[in-house]
Every structure is written in C-alpha cells, then in structure tokens.
Design goal:
The protein is α/β, with parallel strands linked by helices. It contains 20 helices and 10 strands.
C-alpha cells in the first residue's frame, strides 16, 4: 500500500475484481446490527428497481463493530426480483464490507466510501446512515437520480422531523449556514446524501482527512464545501427520518463542541466567501412532499431552564469576554423569568451565536472551552423554543424557524464587525 493509498491491499483487490461501477451506495456503520440489514435491503431494492441497467455496489464502511454488523451485511440476501420487482436487475448488485482506517469517526468512513467510488469510476455515490428505520428503496432513487439525470453535484436530504428533533440544526446550524453562504439547505448535517464523481474527487483532494473535521463534523463540512466550491445543489424530500431520538436536555456538550467547532473553522476557511453574501436563495427540492407521522419526543424544558440559570450564575466571567454588556443584561433578565414567560428572543440569540463565532475566531480563550461554556445558553434557547411552540403544528414551526433565519440574515453586519474587531 502506497503512502497515499488509504485502502488496504485486499480491498483494492476486491475493487479491482469488480472493475467498474456506475453507482456506489455507502453505508458507514458502528454497532448497528439491529438496523443495518434493513438499510442494506432498502439500498439493494432501490438500485434494482430504479437503476436496473447500472452496475452497482453497496459498500459498508464499518468502524470496528463487535456486534456482528459486517456479518449481517455480508449475509443479507438481496430481494427476490420475481416477487419484489417488476423486472429483474440487468446487473448484479455487489456487497462489500470493509474496515475504515485513519482517525476514528464518520469522516474516515466517508473517505473510504469516496475512495472506493473514485477507483470504481462511479458516476454517482449515495450515502445512508446505518441506524435508519425509515429508509425506503425510494430514498436511493431520490439521492442518485438527480446526479445521473440532471447533472446535480450534491443532493442534500430534506426530511420531516418532529418539531423538537434536530434542535442544534434548527436553532444554530441551519440559520447560520443559510445566512453565511446564502443557500437554503434545510438539513445541512442530515447524514444521507448523493454526490457526483466531480464532487467526490473534490472532497478527496482537500486537506481535511487527517484533521479533527474528519473526526467530527464531516456532514456540515461536506455541505459547506459543496456550496463554496460552486457545485450544483438540490434537496431530496425523503419523508420522515426515524432514528433513536434524544431529549434535547440530554448531555449534548460533545456534539455541540464538535458541530459548532467545525462550523466556526469553516467560517475561517471561507471568510471571503461569506463576507460577500447577503440574503439567501431557495435550493430546489425533488420528490413528492407529503405529511408523515412522526415519533413523539419527550422534552423537559424545566431541566433546560435550570441548566441555563446555573450558567448565568457561574459563567459570567467567561461570557464577559465574548458578549456585549447589554446582551449579558438581557440574559440575566431571562434567568429571572419563570414558567411560560421564559424566553430568549431571536435577535438576542442571533447576536450571541455570532459573538461566539467571533470569539472563537479571535481565540479569546481556549476554543473548546468557549463552546462548552455556551451550552447553558443553548439549553435556554431550546427551552424558550419548546415553550413557545408547545401547541404549534409542523407548518407553524417551519414558519417560526423562517423568522429566525431572517434575523440571522439581518444581523450579519453585527457578525462582520465582531469578526474583524481587534482583541
């Protein structure tokens, strides 16, 4: 194996035996024995049903599972075409399960999938999470067809999610990414996507794979690089994303540090790009949009408010290095509120997020510690949103999030001033 080759010789040999593939569907996994069989079957059925003339490979990139995940992939029987499908697939669908190497994390799995797709000369590559319970064969069609038929380079997922699921996306990542780069990608860290050969090669050529971005935050990195690389974009409506939901009041400090740290590092990489952007534009959505039932999520806003109040009490000395005095006073006022009157309004929240980004950029303190110190603020914001939207339906929630995004766009000059301010 050469110094630059990331795949093991035995994997290269198996890919060499296959020779070529038009489509690669990658499934990164770790301890997903309970769900990966369903994901593999959905991928196989989708490829056979919608791309019967294509040479296709389903590739599982596993991170060292000890629960039998790779064995399930190897032993999953493809669909009986005579029963499940209208016609037999013209070409067989191959299944590979290979370990990934390098930094532990999802990024190393993606790199393995992308490198295999490059070696096979694939025209399109799709990736699906291994823990999905709601994936259907139609997902494969929606993620791959825009690449093959319309020349799209990046197909982002568009899901219906419970109104209290994806709180980091809804309150931070989506509004920030949209305001920064001007593209309304609703799920910038969705985890399921389709990419073209050109974008695969672009990703592989970037010096990120031995960094912390490859360990954490790879999803937002891919979305941002697709936008800033001027690749063509669309979104695919996939219906519900059903997985194991978590209470937003659970311990999210690690995820918040990982995701926001990546967002802020990308802001430094693409500062000239986002500085020139004002406003945003819609990104086309393919697929038939429909309402779906969603798993309920139990939320404990009182616990989040308690966390917020402790932060206001204990972290003022740190926050004073990041936030304006007037904003700190508003936080203290919010901490004195109780019950249904508790609120952290959109404009204050936007200014806090932007001030945090600037403090991270200016290194006013150790970076991870800065982000961790804002977890109580995040908890307070989510509690405020949950309280306000307790009786709202999905459309009302989306309308409310649209208002938040507009505030992030309107306050972008505040970010510019803080970003360029001297320490």
């Amino acid at each position: 194996m050469s110094a630059r080759e990331i795949l093991r010789p035995e994997v290269l040999a198996r890919l060499g035996h296959l020779g070529h593939a038009d489509i690669v569907v990658g499934i990164p996994s770790y301890q997903n024995a309970g769900t990966i069989g369903h994901v593999v079957q959905a991928a196989q059925t989708g490829l056979a049903k919608y791309f019967p003339g294509a040479q296709s490979v389903v590739l599982n990139s596993d991170g060292g599972s000890t629960d039998g995940t790779p064995d399930i992939v190897a032993n999953t029987i493809g669909p009986d075409a005579a029963v499940v499908l209208v016609s037999h697939p013209v070409r067989p669908i191959h299944r590979l399960s290979v370990p990934y190497h390098g930094l532990p994390g999802k990024g190393s799995a993606f790199r393995t999938i992308f490198r295999a797709a490059e070696l096979l000369g694939a025209k399109a590559c799709a990736v699906a999470d291994a823990d999905l319970r709601s994936i259907t064969p139609e997902w494969i069609h929606l993620l791959v067809a825009p690449v093959l038929d319309q020349g799209v380079d990046y197909v982002a997922p568009y899901y219906h999610r419970h109104k209290f699921d994806g709180t980091i996306t809804n309150n931070v990542v989506y509004p920030v990414t949209r305001a920064l780069y001007g593209q309304q990608i609703r799920q910038p860290i969705g985890g399921d996507f389709g990419v073209s050969r050109a974008l695969v090669q672009h990703y592989l050529g970037l010096p990120v794979w031995d960094s912390d971005v490859a360990r954490y935050g790879i999803d937002i990195w891919m979305t941002t690089e697709a936008i800033c690389g001027d690749f063509s974009l669309c979104q695919a409506f996939l219906g519900a994303k059903l997985h194991d939901p978590k209470d937003p009041a659970a311990d999210l400090s690690a995820m918040l540090v990982q995701v926001l740290g990546t967002v802020f590092r990308l802001m430094e990489t693409h500062a000239e790009r986002w500085d020139a952007v004002q406003g945003s534009e819609p990104v086309p959505i393919v697929g038939f949009r429909y309402d779906v039932g969603l798993d309920p999520i139990k939320v404990n806003p009182a616990r989040m408010v308690d966390h917020f109040r402790r932060g206001v009490r204990d972290l003022e000395s740190i926050w004073r290095t990041m936030f304006d005095r007037a904003d700190l006073e508003q936080l203290k006022q919010a901490a004195s509120q109780s019950g249904s009157g508790f609120s952290i309004d959109d404009r204050l929240w936007t200014r806090l997020v932007y001030a945090l980004a600037a403090a991270y950029h200016r290194r006013v303190s150790e970076r991870d510690a800065l982000v961790r110190s804002t977890l109580p603020l995040y908890m307070g914001r989510v509690a405020s949103f949950v309280t306000e939207m307790a009786d709202a339906d999905a459309r009302q929630v989306e309308a409310r999030l649209e208002q938040l995004c507009m505030i992030f766009e309107q306050e972008k000059d505040y970010l510019r001033r803080r970003w360029s301010a001297e320490i």
